[in-house]
Amino acid sequence: MRRYITFATIVVFMFLIGSCSHTVKVPVYRPPQTDIGVKKVFIAQMTGTGGTDLEDRIRDGLLSSGYYDIVSKLQFEKILSSHGMSWSDLNVLNKVVELGRDIGPAAIILGDVSVSEYIEEPVKYAVVVDEDGTRHKLGKRKGTAHLEAHIRILDARTGEKIFYKKFSAERTEITKAENAPPPPIDGFELLRDCRQEIADMFVSRITPIETIVSLDYELDDEIPLLEKGYKMVKAKNYDKAIKYFEQATSENGDRWETWWDLGLTYEAAGMHQKADSALTKAYDLFPEDFIAEEIANNKKYMWRSDDE
Predict the structure, then answer these.
(1) What is the DSSP code (8-state) at residue 236?
(2) CA of residue 140 relative to chain centroid, distance
(3) In terms of DSSP bridges, do strands 40-43 and 107-120 run parallel, antiparallel, or are they unpaired?
(4) CATH of the domain at 285
(5) Distances in Å between the alpha carbon of 71 and those of 80, 106, 108, 280?
(6) Which of 20, 122, 247, 291 registers the highest number of CB atoms within 10 A of its CB?
(7) Which of 178, 209, 240 corresponds to the end of one domain?
(8) Per residue in 214-229, pLDDT tens?
(9) Considering its fold, how many domains does the chain have in total?
(10) How far is CA 128 from CA 122, 133, 136, 208, in A?
(11) Where are the beta strands (DSSP E) in 32-106?
């Protein structure tokens, strides 16, 4: 029994010194509430009072997310013009389909500001008497801005509506003064704040949330390709890293570490279908809980995959 334990210990020790884990942090996107299915986005002219401002704020929000490829308004206008189309033609199904043949897989965002109002109540005054009998006249001014916008998204390939929602926002401001008229309220600024709130709500609705996750790579002195691939992962050069790891699986396909590292890199690159296959292969060779857990974790992101 003693000899068995000693032999097992030696085997484990040799395994540990030959293979070790290295951690790298990479960004991974969590799914949005509404997945529009494409990354190329055209933003059409939005109608209604303040529509242009809302359109600009949505464009800025989507650009800031860094997730979508936003076509400039000028470029969109040129494309429409080349097809003899105007903004209003985007409401005609067959014209959108015709446009889609040219621009390919893309989403078209349209919107209309249906309500844009600012209401200010009459100034109210109240008299307050101090303990010494001094009288104070307190004035209060209250203004409320209310905005409603209907935003929809079209699939450029089919012209079909893939998203529609009415967004609303309200902002209230109160100013007060003693023995003097309350300061005025900038109703236009409140309406701008409402448009920004609606833009933020819409952008967050369709934009994935980027989170940073830690991935533990397995390196082995006997397989130099793993370290080369790992260094490329740290450099965020996933294409090059994948080539190294794919070569490692080709030359050492019986080693679970090669499939594990390849699977993690596919995952980091957003190629979650391929990641699932590679991680499953690693599990077949080395059926441990941590590999099964990573397979389950990767499936959370298979809502959107850049696999070709």
Answers:
(1) T
(2) 42
(3) parallel
(4) 1.25.40.10
(5) 13, 10, 10, 39
(6) 291
(7) 209
(8) 999 999 999 999 999 9
(9) 2
(10) 19, 9, 5, 53
(11) 40-43, 69-71
- Residue 246 backbone phi and psi in degrees, to 5: -65, -40
Which residues span the domain enclosing 256? 219-299
H-helix or E-strand spanning residue 2:
helix 2-18
Residues facing 172 on adjacent strands: 144
Cα separation of 24 and 208, whole Å? 22
Rounded Cα gap, residues 135 and 275, in angstroms: 76
Claim to verify: residue 230 and residue 184 sit in the same structural domain = no
**Residue 150 and residue 109: Cα distance in Å, rounded?**
11
147 and 224 co-located in one domain: no
Each residue of 181-217: pLDDT tens digit? 999 999 999 999 999 999 999 999 999 887 888 999 9
Strand ranges, E, within 179-284: 209-220
- DSSP notation for 265-300: HHHHTT-HHHHHHHHHHHHHHS--HHHHHHHHHHHT
DSSP letters of 141-153?
EEEEEEEEEEEEE
DSSP 88: G
pTM: 0.73
Length of the chain (residues):
308
